[in-house]
């Protein structure tokens, strides 16, 4: 886990690999300011939905972390591969970190607790400490379902390969400018969108439910993340596949799950009754080990 003291303050260790990656991507992404085209912008936006919406929001988060719905394995692996192109580490590390976050939200054992400061929750937790590196005992405790799946372990080990392949394809189509927009600018935009869920969505917004953490519903972050910004709704019942509970709470990821249902690609979809705060309808509550 991250080096956080018992008082909730970050430790003094640094992650040189992550620092290099984060700085490099930000510097190269600045070149997008000088290589604009509507085609490149479209590549960024479409890529951000595929990677950030389908990959991270649906794949890494609602499907793998919380098991709020089920899909055929081929689709599960596809969504997971999309998620790897976010450059937020492989599925095993990402999911284990997020399950730990839900288990110990806002405590000294939370990997990115906002009690240690906004910038710690937003970025510094990635740059300092061991970030998402966990020992085998921690993995066995928090992601037994993933470490027993050889395909997920393979995807986790080579999580950088899909990004390299997509980058090569973009280069062949549109040259270096398209790579800058479709890889570097897209990754940086996706990073901050996700990081704002960890930081801003625990600082600013409305709280519909009196949860034991500082989570809020933030409409702007919800727009950036295709529905992940309804964070207080999510923390009130992590196992729910639906985060936007009112008609005006835009949740494209939930709409996508509904489309999957219509196509008979999604089953065991868990939904949240906001009045009684229990999961209703399709299936019973998931096991606490996945949604503690």
Write up this protein:
- This protein is mainly α.
- It has one domain.
- The chain has helices at 16-29, 38-65, 73-84, 91-103, 118-127, 136-142, 144-147, 150-157, 161-198, 219-224, 231-236, 252-262, 288-291, and strands at residues 271-273, 278-280.
- A hairpin with a 4-residue loop joins strand 1 (271-273) and strand 2 (278-280).
Percent of residues in helices: 55-70%
Whole-number tally of structural domains: 1
State the strand order across the main sheet: 1-2
The end-to-end span amounts to 17 Å
Q: What structural class do the secondary elements suggest?
A: mainly alpha
Strand content: under 5%
Beta-strand segment tally: 2
* Biggest sheet character: 2 strands, antiparallel
Order of helices and strands: HHHHHHHHHHHHEEH
Shape: globular
Question: Quick check: average pLDDT?
Answer: 89
Low-confidence stretches: 1-9, 275-292
How large, in whole angstroms, is the Cα Rg?
18 Å
Number of helical stretches of at least 4 residues: 13
> Could you state the oligomeric state of the chains shown?
single chain
Write a concise keyword list for the protein shown above.
292 residues, mainly alpha, 13 helices, 55% helix, globular, disordered C terminus
Brief digest:
By secondary structure, the protein is an all-alpha fold.
């Amino acid at each position: 886990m991250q080096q956080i003291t018992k008082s909730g303050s970050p430790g003094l260790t640094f992650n040189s690999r992550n620092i290099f990656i984060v700085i490099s991507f930000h510097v190269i992404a600045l070149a997008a300011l000088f290589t604009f085209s509507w085609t490149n912008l479209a590549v960024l936006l479409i890529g951000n939905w595929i990677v950030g919406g389908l990959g991270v929001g649906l794949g890494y988060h609602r499907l793998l972390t919380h098991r709020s719905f089920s899909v055929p394995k081929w689709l599960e692996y596809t969504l997971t591969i999309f998620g790897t192109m976010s450059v937020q580490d492989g599925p095993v590390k990402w999911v284990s970190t997020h399950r730990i976050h839900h288990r110990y939200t806002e405590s000294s054992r939370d990997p990115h607790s906002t009690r240690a400061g906004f910038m710690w929750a937003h970025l510094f937790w990635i740059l300092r400490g061991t970030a998402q590196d966990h020992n085998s005992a921690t993995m066995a405790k928090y992601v037994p379902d993933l470490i027993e799946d050889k395909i997920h372990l393979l995807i986790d080990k080579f999580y950088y390969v899909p990004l390299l392949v997509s980058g090569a394809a973009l280069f062949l189509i549109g040259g270096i400018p398209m790579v800058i927009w479709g890889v570097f600018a897209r990754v940086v935009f996706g990073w901050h969108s996700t990081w704002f869920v960890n930081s801003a969505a625990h600082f600013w917004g409305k709280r519909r439910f009196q949860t034991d953490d500082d989570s809020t519903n933030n409409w702007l972050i919800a727009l950036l993340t295709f529905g992940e910004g309804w964070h207080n709704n999510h923390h009130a019942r992590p196992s729910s596949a639906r985060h936007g509970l009112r008609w005006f709470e835009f949740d494209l990821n939930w709409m996508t799950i509904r489309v999957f249902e219509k196509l008979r690609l999604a089953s065991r979809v868990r939904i949240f009754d906001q009045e009684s705060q229990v999961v209703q309808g399709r299936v019973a509550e998931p096991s606490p080990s996945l949604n503690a």
